[in-house]
Amino acid sequence: MIATLAARALTQPLAQVADRMVGPRGCLLTFHRAAPPKLWEGLPNRDFYLDIEFIDRFLAHLVAQKWDVVTIGEALRRSGSADDNSRYVNFSIDDCYRDTFELVAPVFRRHNVPLTLFVTTGIPDGTASIWPIGLEYILLERDEILLDGQVVRLSTPEERRAVYQRISSTWDGPHAPQRYAAFCAENRVDINAMHWAHAITWEMLETLAKDPLIEVGAHTVSHARISSLAPDEALAELEGARVRLNQRLGIDVQHFAFPYGRSGDCGPRDFALAREAGFLSAATTRKGLVRSGQDRFSLPRNTINGSHRSVGAMEMHLLGLTGVAARITGRV
Ligand SMILES: [Zn+2]
User: Regarding beta strands 87-95 and 115-119, do their DSSP bridges make them parallel or antiparallel, or are they unpaired?
Assistant: First the structure.
């Protein structure tokens, strides 16, 4: 309670000072998944999720503090207008899993604010491996697993988190899907059933695309790291996702977000390719704020980590301080 009051005393005047000093600005925020608090506590990769009750509180805070919650389209319009004087926030979800439809969209609807979805089309098509999710839920649901012929026992959430970290860091890279498939076979997990237990479906996306509060954007076909691809492969990932979404949902997708999104994952060549693929904008996960005159193909976005569950921590993003910190520490 005292900590909350102290945080409030600190952040509220800061926000007011910042309004005078920082001026008009936009803050694009992104996250992947959400979970109810009870499930969140035990998840092996819980930083990947926001507590759904936290999202609810944060949206109420933003509305009360007179932030405008906007689409990417509207953020671009404001950043392109020299006389815009507003403060605005955009929320985007990358990849898109079932909880986007079941948990997150209903909360945004209840607050009557928009939400942007950056869809990896291989997820509803069943062609992209969602190995980090599959690995996580196998660890969550079992008391022991087999890993390369060895039994690994799992009892506490801490143990599951440590094992998740260890396995996911050794798998990470182009061969992760094959290693995950072998792991599923070794542990007799139905890899398809696991996919559909978590993937968003085209039927869910159809419903979401008809909602005036939902803006649908693209996030590649297979969740590829664009900078690692040859130009024609990269263009196929960008264009393929846009065309697939347009055809399947009957919409006109205009915005793109780079998977991973840090400076090593997408650069000037890739920003140019996003334009060539027919998008009006492309977003990174480089921290910072959007201001007047912002380049549309390298939009900064601030990833909300699931462990940051106080509105005070979010103020750091809204003030642009996480971007400043990232530049100082070189995490860009
Ligand atoms: Zn992603």
Answer: parallel
Based on the number of CB atoms within 10 Å of its own CB, is 263 exposed (0-12), middle (13-18) or buried (19 or more)? Answer: middle
- Residue 235 Cα, ligand 1 centroid: separation in angstroms? 17
Question: Which tens digits make up the pLDDT trace of 265-293?
Answer: 999 999 999 999 999 999 999 999 998 88
Cα 69 to ligand 1 centre (Å): 22
Q: For residue 273, what are the domain limits?
A: 2-7+23-125+199-329
H runs (alpha helix) in 142-190:
157-171, 176-186
User: Taking a C-beta distance cutoff of 8 angstroms, is the pair 115, 327 a contact?
Assistant: no
Distance 156 CA to ligand 1 centre (A): 28
Please say whether the beta carbons of 274 and 235 come within 8 A: no
Do 257 and 219 form a contact (C-beta atoms < 8 A)?
Answer: yes
The total of structural domains in the chain comes to 2
Average pLDDT, the chain: 91
Instruction: Please tell me the distance between residue 10's alpha carbon and the centre of ligand 1 in angstroms.
Output: 33
CA 260 / ligand 1 centre spacing (Å):
6
CA distances from 211 to 253, 272, 286, 289 (A): 15, 31, 29, 27
Strands 150-153 and 144-147: antiparallel
Q: Which amino acid is at 108?
A: F
pTM listed for this prediction:
0.91
Using the structure block, give the residue that is written with the tokens 């915005």.
Answer: 255
| 185/212 same-domain check | no
In the block, tokens 């790291």 appear at 225
